[in-house]
Amino acid sequence: MPNVVPNETHPGSKGRVTTSGVASNQLRSFVALVIDTLQEAIARRMIWGVYGASVAILLFLAFILEIDLVLGAKSTINLFGQEAMGTEDLERLNTFISLVQGAIAAFLYAVSVFVAIFLGAGLSSTILERGRLDALLARPIPRVQLLLARYTGILLIACTNVVLLIVASWLILGWKSEFWNTGFLSAIPITCFMIASLLSLVMLVVVLTGNGAIAMIASFVVIVFSPILAQNELAIRLLPSGFARGVWHTLYLLAPKVFELGSLLVGRIGGATTFQWQPVLSSALFAAIALALALWRFSKTDR
Amino acid sequence: MSPYPAIQAESLSKTYFFPWSRRRVEALRDLTLSIPAGNSFGLLGPNGAGKTTFLKILLGMATPSSGSAHLLGQPVGQFAARERVGYLPEGGSLPGYHTGRSFLRLHARLAGLSGTSMESRIDAVLEMVSMREWQTVRLDRYSKGMAQRLGLAQALLGDPQLLVLDEPTDGVDPVGRALLRDVLEGLNQQGVTIFVNSHILAEVELFCRRVAILHQGRLALQGDVADLVQQAGYRLQWTSPHSGVIPTPLPTVGDHPSQEPPQWDEDRQLWSVELPDTVALNQAIDVLRQQGALIESVERAHASLEQVFLRTIRGVEEARNA
Questions:
Q1: B38-56+79-228 belongs to CATH 2.40.160.60
Q2: ipTM
């Protein structure tokens, strides 16, 4: 029979640790690991790459809007001999600007998602490096926390970038067009939500394969197939066999709705009053399952 | 010092199963081992002997297939078991984007330290491994020896009662090795248990008072280093009147078939042979004296740990083949 400590108090500990003390330690560890992710992103210049790209996009937007879109729209209206704009013309201009804003939001949505995947694949695989991971696993912290903190850190960087990009774009658009469309800001939660969903997939693939490149490819496959799967109703009508229809429909239900959420976003900026929750809920379910599987696998695998 | 054994393994087994190739590998087989607190212990074994698997089970990185293990009285796998354990992984692989200090801050927070106590503990461990002047330098600029020293500092952050070191002197120059040895000796004198997993047998011999040899997942031998290296008996040295010629009757002396033949030392112009016991020694002296040889010296023979290791591995292999 092994000679073991008879009660829960560790012989070397300086006293009984309370539940709140343990929770506080766990929180401190979690924050330390999130900060570690940020430090790595800064030191590897990934964060500067992300924010640098965003600043470049913003400068480009400011330049384009100045020359082509707003002034161009105004000159088009002037071309029809209506110097002083009436209410109807203003509405037409607002609709046009909403369309432009929708296109810009869709572009920013796509760019932000791609950037987040690059970031996620680069930062999630490094934590699994041998030696580095061993030293972390030997610490008295749950394995789940290691992975969750990394996920949170990556999400934090990606979402901060989204907020910067969308808010600055909104300011530029409003300043240039004098049309302050608050619907444009709904791009922030929708884009962040989709990034969270796809990052869950990145984490799962990295945990399963240990390879960031494969995780990136898997995410791009999901994005590329998203508009195709979105034609679910048409496909179900056209597919000949019940089996093929079943496979298609299952894939449609399981996959994150990258394309549909993008379409929802454009519609919302265009003034759509209804919002379809099905793509949001199924994408949330996908994210929850992928992340739960990644955490489960990471905590159970022998390292 | 902990009243419980630092490490205790009871009938520990670990089998890896590879589903793609449908292959099973028994990495550990029924290993029972107890290391008292305050000891300095070396775990030896050829590649694939199960050393790393054992270490990973102890640190909660792998789960045993059967049996149990405890660290300082706590079942492995529980956080409490790792609270008072410091670990230096093999090869280091430190994250290059950290400076020495920021790396230690991360691990100090994970060890439950914070505020001024954290900063003073970091200062103390940097001082212990003589790395204070390098604390602001990024880790990707460290030499391998510096990385090992910082790795040791990381392992010491939580004021451990048990220090687990995986190949601690791998890639470290002689000066760095001497420093590590001094630090570990000092810690051991303060009651910290040192557990070393190493291929460098001479280092283990210097660091550790007790060793175990694992082979094919089983415990092949364990004992105090001093006892193990002394069990070789006597070394007899003589000069022969027939220089360079082996005295013919000697190899059969003592009836020990595994005895090595006499060795000729060209530099010192001496013959020498190792004899297992006093009977063999006296028989050899009688034979040599009859041949007119001059006995130069008789001393207690000390096998190196490497010789003990190789002899043990060979013994296990021979027993298995038989």
A1: no
A2: 0.80
